[in-house]
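mind reviewing both lines:
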Amino acid sequence: MGTLFKFMKKIFTAGFRQILIIPITLLTIGIGIKTALAQNKLYSPIPLTNFTEISDTLSNKDIPTGQGGFARDYAVKLNKGDNLAVELSSENFDSIITLLAPNGSTVLENDDAPDGTSNSLLFTRITEAGTYIVRVRSFGETGVGNFKLKVTKLQPVK
């Protein structure tokens, strides 16, 4: 009887492990999928499809910069050779504009425009086609509020 009991115990234990493995695996897969979906929703740059001035608002629901401020990203498709001007102005916060390349590296950044204001302005020629990020952010803890962003593809003078 002792051998039969040990055999039954072994089958029960092995079966119990199998029963536990399946729900734990499914739970892990479910959490992974949910996390991936949440991450996609967390970062979603706003597409800029036409090159006109837009009015928008930077809020505490945007991307935290780690310096007390916030950032909002806009995705823009550019071609090699495009000449780009980006203007950012706000009466509510000290603005910084950053242009990020398709690989995430910083192409150019400007804090204060040449006119001495806390608005931002940058010019650049695109050397690689792709989707670039125009990042609007506030300097330090200067806050949130309304802003105007203008992204322009400059045309050569003929």
